[in-house]
Amino acid sequence: MDNPDVTALLGLVDAGWTGEPVGDLAAPVMLVYHRTLPGAEDEVLVIDAGKVRACRRVGGSVTLPVSGTVAEVVAAVAAWPTVGPFEAVS
Fold it and tell me: What pLDDT does 17 receive?
């Protein structure tokens, strides 16, 4: 049986994100996904399937914050532009 959350997170990896577990590999505390673009750093924190947060950092400022389920957050970050210039939101 396919797990849609796992499929969505594998889509991040396919799109160039790197993922790492935090804590014990058998039972991680959370998963962290990261992508570096020219001028921006993107991060997704998966605490559990219903508690996921993401943001983009531009010039030291956090922009494009989003939170929700795995599906909601992955859909949101997939829509973020990958070509700059990126603007920081104050």
Answer: 97
Residue 85 is predicted with a pLDDT of 77
Positions of the chain with pLDDT under 70: 1, 88-90
SS3 48: strand
Q: Look at residue 59 and tell me if it is in a domain.
A: yes
Which of 59, 68, 51 is closest to 90 using CA atoms? 59
Question: 């796992």: which residue's tokens?
Answer: 6
d(CA 86, CA 4): 30
Q: Provide the number of structural domains found in the chain.
A: 1
pLDDT of residue 60: 86
| Angle, vertex CA 11, rays to CA 5 and CA 14, nearest 5 | 150
The SS3 of residue 89 is coil
Q: Under a CB-based contact definition with an 8 Å cutoff, are residues 29 and 48 in contact?
A: no
**Is 90 contained in some domain?**
no
